[in-house]
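Give me the 3D structure for TIGR01244 family sulfur transferase.
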Amino acid sequence: MPGIGLTPFLFVSPQLGLDDVDEAHEEGIVAIINNRPDGEKEGQPTSLEIEKRATELGVAYRHIPVVAGKMTTEKIEAFRSALKELPQPILAFCATGTRSTTLWALAEAPQSDADAIISLAREAGYNLSNLRPTLVESNLTHSAAKGRSEHTDAPLDLGHPTTRDVVIVGGGAGGIAVASSLLAREPSLAITLIEPRSEHYYQPGWTMVGGGVFDNNLTIRDEIRLIPAGVRWIRASAAGFEPQNNAVILEDGEKVLYKTLIVAAGLKLDWKAIPGLSETLGRNGVTSNYEPGLATYTWELVQRLKKGVALFTQPPMPIKCAGAPQKAMYLSCDYWRRSGCLNHINVEFNTAGNVLFGIPEYVPALDAYIDKYGIELGLGQNLVAIDGPGKTATFEMVFDDGTSITEDRHFDMIHVCPPQTAPDFVRSSPLSNEAGWVEVDPDTLQHVRYDNVYALGDVCSAPNAKTAAAVRTQAPIVATNILNAIHHSPERALYSGYGSCPLTVEKGKIVLAEFGYGGKIMPTLPFIDGTKPSRIAWLLKEKMLPWVYWNLMLKGREWLVKYETSETHRTARPVALLDKRK
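Predicted structure for TIGR01244 family sulfur transferase (582 residues):
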């Protein structure tokens, strides 16, 4: 049965796509309740689209949209009525299933025990413990309210949550690593982690999956297995911040209060920014190692292509792992070379940037592989549209005088790196800078306006490369600075901007780029010359780094992490890493 069962007759689910409606029908669902407002996130199907598909299949449909933070008695009554009136079994959905679960709990509360409701929700993976006072009150006052109908558009008070020592938004590499680093230093901390996903991805491994080196299953683990013992997990999406009230707002309107906040929410892959891309991604020869599960399609395309045109693209900065688009290309070319068909494939690397790589010391080695594989290098060329069925990609070239032209290119295979931004709920929050990222001091990773807020990983404004290696260094720095602040110590750990990009130039060899703020070269292991391709760097990437990620970094065991400390800290960096691309 699709979704997760709250009762034998009601299932809840994250956002449904049109294909999911078909699957739900095939699995026996006869009614669907949509609790998500239209336009909440780019790319989600509209209510009319879902209703049309459901109607075609004979599935009953009802739209009861709930805006995050605006749970009202009117919506609860509408949900209660839908449960009575619609045929069963019913599948209710929203962005993550949390709003649907909350609606069910509040609709059920007058005639059911609060603890029983909370227990059923917990078994389904949704923590409604903060809702308990509201559920209890609803049950106790049901008799007095019986026969009286009170509808209001005023948001409900969903209880008074306990203030936690630390709240972390995001359960990816940064969130798990910093939680572990904090607990390794002070096990008594009360920590809450907010993360909607049930799966955790080792994203650096997707390049290797796309090159036929790793099996995709090796890059995925259950989130619950990685969360440190004692950390409270709220399986929901954050919808906003109220730093003046020390509160995180969840998608259902619940507030999670904190003494210290850490934002590790990652970034948004903006597929919709390129017209036609989201509609064709994963078919028609259009792929991307940036999307969960699609690296296997990359490898299928690489093996299938014997002749034709292969395009690889890179958007304007910033992006996570700036070398990843090239890595996909080099591993593909190496496979075609070994298979004897590279001479029959025209390979192009089209990048919006004006240099091959932002750190000059590593460019000669990469240039050598561009020549070796016969790759046509297109600098200053940005992908602006794609026609999957027509096998056509449109690129824009902007000239120094501000004029621009577009050019259509045929492809048989195209690997796309999408434009990337901060998550919507971060961009629209008081925590963001003008570019949308959480605005932190680049040295301490502490927010520049809210002293009890920190950020790390892709979401923060520090001008370092957005890589997993950066997170590995940032996590203990954030943990140290938080605990020093709690204990009123003036000492601060300082982040050097360290990041690493193992550039897989062929199967068995890597150019190991390691650098910090201002493009400073920062090698970790003195016996590896990162400016030259080496076998030992490949073994590090293939054998050691996955083990380091799962068994050291995510468990607070800080392997080869070094940082300076100071009782005062700088407030700005004069030269950002990405400025060197000029």
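The chain has a mean pLDDT of 89. Let me know if you want a second pass.
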